[in-house]
């Protein structure tokens, strides 16, 4: 069994980097804080005798050698970048749980047939740069390295610039790295496990996702002297779309999701009618047909709104992955490990995207969820119980051992 | 008659300070650019032999002595701060038209009984700091100097700090400065004169205005894993209010106005349900009863929305002035001057607020409008014809002379 206390202490240590006043973490991808966090975890890996490899998109792989040189590594990991007002567990738990598996194996001098690897994927959150799940996306070939390198943040800095700046452009070509199986432990980020009183969620699938940038262009004019009928108010048109995003999601329950998380209003002066509004759209659902239907309704609504308002509306897809069912062997391995350890469990579909979605394209993959307080994540108040994290880590250990032999 | 070419050249000179690539001006109040513009215009005033006085809120008064020491000055002015994406004429025209009146009087060695003064009021635009029309508001006692000093911009800098930094905290107590009559020339900032083919607008009144800050507080949570029914999405609630602001204005035509110009969404990450949205509300109408009704409907809607959504909604009034009819003598003086000069004219109610609104509380006041292209203002493409500006300046000269004797 793993050492929950050691896991917790490492989490606390890591979360000093970018700690916020409200008890959360702000450690945006490819910032100096991200570099510090990478350096810290790599140091821990080296202390456990792991060999380090870094690829061209900055993904980090830390390997514990196996007994059988012909076998591909059994990998576990997640990410250590966070949201601008992020929590302490999202991603961090998965990486440190994988490290704790290694520490446990070292402590008990367990020799596995396949190597064991800890993965730290670059820019999972997608908050600073799109596409989301960038490192694992490049790794599995969902999009190109060049596409990822070219992504810019709101200040116009590119991924390549920032990755170079923090010194994490590695040598390895992304994807030239065989994986025998991939597991990811993560907090649920939703309320289901807590509501049902379960400790482990076995994750059969992840919702598919489409992200868009939408821009509405009107005409800046004076808020006092411009009569209402003559206005071309970009914000008024944008808000009807923002509301429709949620209305569409509500029509395709229980798995439909619709969110506008980012808004940039211009010129953003209180007595100027907005001339341009840019905003993000995030829609998700559990199967391709439903997600396609939602996308269709969104584009139709936007076309209708453009015609009706006479304003120009641009809609651009910036991230997309279809719903992802995990490999039945890995799902079964997680379930067996959970049952063996005797934890109350249930199946939970993941509403959040994870690097496991892209890992699943190149290897059998599975996920392990543990509860988080009130189902809240992407919030500084995100919280989880040490004993639940330890349970998730134990399930990870046993599922990995089953595959690693 | 005034010299339209000289007026135009001074406008061009002034508008080099903060000139934007798109042909507009960005010269926010109390910035270094504002200081440069103040210095330039004061230099011109000194060259005309004017004596300069500055008050504690940074209002600048440049005086040409009169023959009768017992008489209060006849004043004309406006402002030289601009919107973030402002035009070249809004405010600047009024100040330089007043200066052109002085230059014309000097050139023709005209001695008036009352002194003539050029006023440059601080922070008319209200974009960086509220309340709007700050300098004239403090001058007339609409709100206190301390209240104005304490106002902060989005970066947390205060008016007092910034006014001190640019060196424009004067000695004079605001308002301890008698005014015989006040005139302000301004572009219309609306489409009426152009549509009707008139050159001069005689302004009988200005719409009353209420500005609010509204804050909706929900709960930040994950955009993928949080089921729709459990969300407390601050942006979704805010957008219903944003739409109602416009709906209310549409119900009280032809003078009702409703605008949301400023929006700040938080944490503003595409996969985080917004936890807090702050936005501005600007409503206006032509008489107190209608403006009160609009305010009443707004607060009622917000109460209902707070109850219905369960989210906290804070509404705070940050600027207010009632509809302002101008003094009949001044309105008549403007009309007489226009008729004497033979310009096609009509009455136009001002949708925009002006320093004249506050000057009207301490002296008889009146305004002169000239057309602007397509009625567009608070936009870098704001435009006006030199011959219209010259006409407005001539009307200003004659109206002032009538009052100054
Ligand atoms: N797990 C997680 O927070 N992923 C970020 C990508 C998403 O929005 O689902
Ligand atoms: N004239 C002008 O643009 N004033 C700014 C205040 C307002 O919004 O009316």
UniProtKB/TrEMBL annotation, chains A, B:
Q: What does the record's cofactor remark say about binding?
A: Binds 2 Zn(2+) ions per subunit.
According to its UniProt record, which cofactors does this protein need? Zn(2+)
* Record bears the keyword DNA-binding: no
Record keyword Hydrolase present: yes
Q: Which residues bind Zn(2+) 2?
A: 90, 125, 378
**Which InterPro entries does the UniProt entry name for this protein?**
Amidase_Cbmase, Bact_exopeptidase_dim_dom, Peptidase_M20, Peptidase_M20_dimer
The positions annotated for binding Zn(2+) 1 are: 79, 90, 186
> Under what name is this protein listed?
Allantoate amidohydrolase
